């Protein structure tokens, strides 16, 4: 079965990291966000991918083709007009009567999708949220979805669409997305997938809900660190290191160098990174980053970055270098 993964966004809220690395390739607990998503799909029956790319899409294409030996279609989205537009482009790779899973590339969903694949009715993953005004929101009657709205001012429930959709076929979806795209119909400035789904409901298409408990945002730095903490609970690989102190959970790439340091809790160290005389907690260190004589917490260090000197919180983009006098 095919899965569509839209990952064309610029990732403005995660700058400076996304100036040089697309958001789906930011590393959490030892592997990129996109790898966490795909690695959860493949054992459940997904054997083809349609990936919609835009910003720095060449990096994403190179990554997925080198890592996964399955059929992969890369669809380019040059005009960022919203999720609905992205999905309309992806549907060019899907037949009308072909079932397909759609999963967004900016959130990590922990759910047994095998419960969804093969159902006879369209199904949308939902999760309870504290502020539903920020999301697409569904109105329920039991498990049946009877209404939905994108970022409503007056939500009819606190159940948000969790970025996971299963369609038994796409002819009706294709029709309504085409109408929105052809007429450039926008909500909150973008062509919304939710608006097409509302039109499908109006034509008596049936949508059921699938409740998701593990839904983790990767949209901004604080949320990224929170998701990183959760993933490390199941992906840590280091409990102790000679000449270092480790407070699990911690992930350290096998080819990273760590000397005279205290790591953890909730620290991951990327490939070929070099850490010396450092105290790190709740911190993500990118590939080939160099840290020396520093104290960091709640921090993100990009690939090829370098920092020397005392600090407590730091977000340092790729290839940046900062040196402070060590007291």
Describe this structure in words.
This protein has two domains: 2-217, Spore Coat Polysaccharide Biosynthesis Protein SpsA, Chain A; 236-323, UDP N-Acetylglucosamine Acyltransferase, domain 1 (3 Solenoid), CATH 2.160.10.10. It contains six helices and 23 strands. The chain has helices at 33-41, 57-67, 83-90, 171-182, 193-202, 221-235; strands at 2-7, 27-28, 31-32, 48-53, 72-76, 100-103, 107-110, 122-128, 136-141, 144-150, 159-167, 207-211, 214-217, 245-246, 250-252, 257-259, 262-263, 267-269, 274-285, 290-301, 306-308, 315-316, 321-323. The strands form five sheets. Strands 14, 15, 16, 17, 18, 19, 20, 21, 22 and 23 form a ten-stranded parallel sheet that branches. A seven-stranded mixed sheet has the order 5-4-1-6-11-8-12, with helices on both faces. The longest helix has 15 residues, at 221-235.
The biggest beta sheet, please?
A: 10 strands, parallel
Count the strands? 23
Could you name the CATH homologous superfamily of the largest domain? Spore Coat Polysaccharide Biosynthesis Protein SpsA, Chain A
Helix content: 10-25%
Q: Hey, roughly how much beta strand do the residues contain?
A: 25-35%
Structural class: alpha/beta
Unreliable residue runs: none
CATH class of the largest domain: Alpha Beta
Average pLDDT, rounded to a whole number, is 89
Tell me the Rg in angstroms: 21 Å
The CATH architecture assignment of the largest domain turns out to be Alpha-Beta Complex
Number of helices: 6
Distance between the termini: 58 Å
The arrangement of helices and strands along the chain is EEEHEHEHEEEEEEHHEEHEEEEEEEEEE
